Structure formats: structure tokens, C-alpha cells
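Hi Q.,

Before the meeting this afternoon, I wanted you to have the pyridoxal-5'-phosphate prediction in hand. No need to reply - just skim if you have a minute. The sequence and ligand are here:
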Amino acid sequence: MQKINFKKELFKDDGHFGRYGGCFAPELLQPILKNVEKTFIKFKKSEKLKNEFDELLKSYAGRKTPVYHAKNFSRKVGGAQIWIKREDLLHGGAHKTNNVLGQAILAREMGSKKLICETGAGQHGIAVSMVGALFGFEVRVFMGAKDVERQKVNVERMKLLGAQVVEIKSGSRSLKDAINEAMRYWVSHSHDTYYVFGTAAGPHPFPELVSYFQKVIGEEAREQILEETGKLPKEVLACVGGGSNAIGIFQGFLDDESVKLIGVEPAGDGVRHGETIGKGKFGCLHGSLSKVNCDEFGQINESHSISAGLDYPGVSPIHAYLDEIGRVEYKGILDEEAVSAFIEFSRLEGIIPALESSHTLAQVKKQAKNYKKDDVLLVNLSGRGDKDLHTVFQEINTKNYE
Ligand SMILES: *Cc1c(COP(=O)(O)O)cnc(C)c1O
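Predicted structure with the ligand bound:
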């Protein structure tokens, strides 16, 4: 592996990560994206804006989130101590709140009056609707028709928070098409509208900007785990959909050579999957070069995962790069392994994890056995699982789980 000082070299404000990244957006969007970039750079230099962000993270979102030693789960699994970073306790129920608070500040600084966003399962749509209410933005959420149907309660939540949900009936009627439509809408409404991108993918500056707003997870976690255990973890694990919660926690540990970093992708039902790093090809989707889940002609495959948050055929160019240089290892977890971990962790710890995060828990079960009792493994619990009960009970009723 190349020796890199990540803190200095990963983010250079140019949007390139090795051969990945870039800004392959329509010409009309280029000046808008430049303006987002300019405002982001201003944010990073402004103590006032950074203080405002920190204050909102604290008093509105509930940071810091704790790290927790999952003793019952550790005992059952055997091997290392498993520690959990509790992003499930963040307001909104997932790490997404960090990102939307940061981008809401950028939108206001740019003079925007309206926010738009894409959403798959609805978690990002809800997060944007929350900050829309808080900051007084009009919110328009683009959502595939298939997802509107599958996620009725979340659509109601967005409406309650004052957002308008736009149902997309084109293409596969899911997340990928919602992003395309949101981009298209942005081109013609950029004078008063800001696009809150939901993960560390998309055209520059979104991968870097979303990573920046999520790095608080890793900064807190590193300090907390050192304080609680007196040492660094042997491994840090996180699930990867677009890659924002994972790059959030990884940023705390990238320069700690002894810490193994593991990203967990959805292996789906074994046939259809969402393993974009594991099985995807070099390509371009939604404005940047990365790994893409596509066929030999570059046509996007429909991804599949039991967890809607991981069901995305693209992935952050930052993860594609970290994979290529060997700094992070990416593994696949099957739907049924994730559901088993969901049930097991709920029963053992009294904490219902998101199905997305359950992929990470299923992976850590495999890793823990390779370590001794005083070794520490740290899992990013990206969100809480209340939203997934319906899906999980459907699974339990049709298959045999212990
Ligand atoms: C949205 C979501 C994810 C996946 O998004 P990333 O950008 O890969 O982090 C993971 N976990 C939860 C709980 C989510 O809501």
C-alpha cells in the first residue's frame, strides 16, 4: 500500500481521488456547482459558520453521540470487544442529520430560498424536510414512484414537516431516477434553489463536502474510544451505500496505520446485489467517475438490497479510491445475514439497529473471532431500525430465522 498522509492529501479542493471523482455535470450546472464550492470554502474558513454548525450539532441534533461497549453481543460472538458508535441516537435517527445541517447553512449563505433533494427510502428526504422546517426553506423531495409506494409512512412524515414530495415515474422509478430528475430540476431553478445531496457521491464538490460534514463521527469516536479503552481499535467497520457514514467515521482513523478499516456492502440475495466496489466497474454515474454497478455496455444495473439505504448502483469516488490503494477493505453481506444480525442485536442489547447498520454487525461477527478478548473493534451504528420493522417481520414470516 502507498504511504499517504490522508489528513493532508485526501481532500485537495479539486475533487479528484486518484483516477476517481471529478465534475461531469451538464454545462448549465457547472457555474452552480462552482458557487457551491466557493461557499463551502468560505464555510471552512469562517469561525462563525463553523460555530453555528457545531452549535446545531450539539443542541438540535444531540451530539456528541456516545460510544458503547456491546458486552452481550461481544460475549455471544466471541473474540474481541465490540464497541458501537451510536449515530442511531442522533436526532432524526441516523447520521444523515450531520450532512443536512451543514448544507442548510451553505444554502442560506448562497441566498437560496428553496431546497431540493433525492430520496430512496425517505430517510434523506425526512432529514432535508427537518432542516427545511428549521431554516424556513421550501422543500421539494424527488422520490421514485416505487419508493413512494413502499415507504408510505416516510412520505407522510415529509409532508407533515412541510415538504412537497414529487413522484418520479420514469426509468426504474427508484433512487437513480430521482437523482436524475433532481439534477434536471436544479438546472432550471438554480437562481433560488439549492440541491442537498444525500451522500458522499455526485459531482465535485459533493463528495468532499458531505465527507466534511460527516467527519465529526470519526473525530468524536477516536477520542472517545481512546478515553474509554486506552487504545486504538484493531478495526473500524461501517456500511457503505453511497458511503457517507463510512467516510465519516473512517476520517478519524485514516492516518492510524494499525487500524484496519472495513466497508460493508450489500450482497443482496446472492443474485441481485449492491456491491458497487466489490463487483462494479470503472464508470461515470451522477456526475463523477467511480465504480458503478453496470453491465459490459455501461448500462446501469438495478441494484438490490433489503435495506433501502444501501440500495444504490453508485458509490462515492473516495471509497473507490481507498479500495484501489488498499487502505480500506470492502466486504459483502447477504440480506439474510443482515436480518439475523438485526434480530440478534435487538434481543441481546435492547437496541434496534437500522438494517443498513445490521450489515456491519453481521460483518463484525465474522471479524471478532480473529482477535483476543482485550482487542477492540468499533462499529458505526449509522441509524436506528424502527423504520425497518415492517421489512424484517415480512422476512421472519416467510423464512426461518432463529
Ligand atoms: C442512508 C443510510 C445509510 C447509507 O448511506 P451512506 O451514505 O452510505 O452512509 C446507512 N445507514 C443508514 C441508517 C441510513 O439512513
